[in-house]
Amino acid sequence: MVTRDKKLVIGTPDDVETIYYEAFRRCDINVMAALWAPGDVVCVHPGSGAVVGYDAVIRSWRHILDGSTMSGLRTALVQRMASDGLAVHLVAEQLPTSPGSEVTVLATNVYRKFAEGWLMVEHHASVVEARQDGGTLQ
Amino acid sequence: MVTRDKKLVIGTPDDVETIYYEAFRRCDINVMAALWAPGDVVCVHPGSGAVVGYDAVIRSWRHILDGSTMSGLRTALVQRMASDGLAVHLVAEQLPTSPGSEVTVLATNVYRKFAEGWLMVEHHASVVEARQDGGTLQ
């Protein structure tokens, strides 16, 4: 069982993002568990439905990170929007799948400011299957 | 060419969302063009890369809505987060594809408060291909 024992005090949305992708690369479930906010957070993994609530989100990450190797993960910020208490970043992720291959994922990450600092409240990821050529669903 | 001639003064993020899905259902590119903010907005259609900038986003919607029938579109709000100037809604969309069939899409919609009211600044949509069973990419 993963509990939110580890305390992180994070000063900016960029810092949450850096720590998030480091946890992802290192498959570190304890850091991952510490940077998500408690409560009604939500996570959409590629191709999946919405995982709602802190416990369910962390369970989903434990499943993903357990035994995985993500050291080759690379990211690039596509877009950012921010207000005083909320920040939204669109990030392009190059995720290793099998040796020699990778997939491009777009992730909308949402960070929120709490009394003790910034934490993650949403991650919505989707695989880029095709270029914008009109052949997509909507 | 679609221009942002139509002026909408929208009082709340919920109102933007209502107008957005009505425009989507009616395939009304003029209303769609009016509810997106000018500037560096971003849109991720299912399976696609990021479309960045107002003109490119509206062109992508023109392509999607032209000749389409979306009257059967149904939506349900999954989650919402808000600050003074930014709101993030996760919405489940049931989208008609061919007669008798539909697909579930999850959309993260981001709305921003401007001097003249709330407008859309991001739409990130992904198809739900499988339930959360651990068989997904990340």
Structural summary, described in words:
The structure is a homodimer of 138-residue chains. By secondary structure, chain A is an alpha+beta fold. Chain A is built from three helices and six strands. Chain A has helices at residues 13-26, 29-35, 54-65; strands at 42-44, 50-52, 74-82, 86-96, 102-114, 117-127. A six-stranded mixed sheet of chain A has the order 2-1-6-5-4-3. In chain A, helix 1 runs antiparallel to helix 2 (29-35). Chain A is globular. The termini of chain A are far apart.
Summary tags:
homodimer; 138 residues; alpha+beta; six-stranded mixed β-sheet; 6 strands; globular
Write the layout of secondary structure elements.
The structure is a homodimer of 138-residue chains.
Chain A: H1 13-26, H2 29-35, E1 42-44, E2 50-52, H3 54-65, E3 74-82, E4 86-96, E5 102-114, E6 117-127
Parallel strand pairs in A: 1-6
Antiparallel strand pairs in A: 1-2, 3-4, 4-5, 5-6
Helix pairs in contact in A: 1-2
